């Protein structure tokens, strides 16, 4: 998204004079590190950037890819210096109220910039750490719902690696999802394990970094967010997405695509919860197969050339289950290095039940009578059993 003029959904044209400094931000850094200056630009993203660690915000602001024509608005960048200790309760109870008080003017500023076009919020956060789970994923989402009750709120969450990023990640993700099921219209779940596998097996990246994983997420969101992602069934807002083709940029000029070659593997990925479009279990061909995922409706997003063939091919997705919408089936020009045909399917699926149940089971087991384990680390910062173990009802073991 180096050219913001082509993405009016995500950017506002606002003249910003001068370079941003730490003095421009309403929350002075407590670490003594000045906010790195940013170049003057006419476009700012419609976002509020926040973290409980100044170094994280600073590193983001220092990223300046060649050709970028936008900058973060200095009044919409906020941080603290203490972190959240990988603890949902610390992020929710200790940082929540004070951080919300500092960002509410920034949120209102961005809402005002949208004018009549304002429809809601997208909250991007992780589930494993204390800031992503307790602050952004729980407290701020709750306050947005209270302040803007009619707004659509979509939370895009990153599910931690199965092997573990932090030892208490299952506590954090269950606590967060218990809150989000009450406040969010849609929770788009993307898995770190899946993103890592795509990078290694399909994009020829031997040792993927978090920047490589984030690049996939950003590309996917740019294509999905202009469309309505809210699932049809109330009460269970969790959704996930699959996309294809998955081709390294260097291979795009030498690849010829057809819509059937894109959509048939994508259908099978959705049916079998397979993140990549190779090595698919093609023997799972029927929704009645116990190995097949059950979908309660889906949205198929198409982008590329050949509108008629694409719409015809997308009809096959009706076999997933529920009502299937096909959107974006129009002629568009692909950016350099991107395939001229691209598709994604997004919606609520039974594939989310297994990782959710595993997380809930591990958390519930830690709260049976016996050793306190990590409970005291949450209780000391204000977490109650009612917070934690609304989520344990999902446990199926």
TrEMBL record:
Q: Name one GO biological process term.
A: microtubule-based process
**Which residue intervals make up region (Disordered)?**
1-36
Return the PROSITE patterns for the record.
Answer: TUBULIN (PS00227)
Does the entry feature the keyword Chaperone, yes or no?
A: no
Keyword GTP-binding listed? The answer is yes
Report the GO molecular function annotations: GTP binding; structural constituent of cytoskeleton
Q: Keywords on this record?
A: Cell projection, Cilium biogenesis/degradation, GTP-binding, Microtubule, Nucleotide-binding, Nucleus
**Residue ranges annotated for the Tubulin/FtsZ GTPase domain, each copy included:** 41-232
Cellular location(s): Cell projection, Cilium; Cytoplasm, Cytoskeleton, Microtubule organizing center, Centrosome, Centriole; Nucleus
The record's Gene Ontology cellular component field reads:
centriole; cilium; microtubule; nucleus
Q: Which InterPro entries match?
A: Delta_tubulin (IPR002967), Tubulin (IPR000217), Tubulin/FtsZ_GTPase_sf (IPR036525), Tubulin_CS (IPR017975), Tubulin_FtsZ_GTPase (IPR003008)
Family according to the record: Belongs to the tubulin family.
Function of the molecule: Acts as a positive regulator of hedgehog signaling and regulates ciliary function.
Name of protein: Tubulin delta chain
The lineage is: Eukaryota, Fungi, Fungi incertae sedis, Blastocladiomycota, Blastocladiomycetes
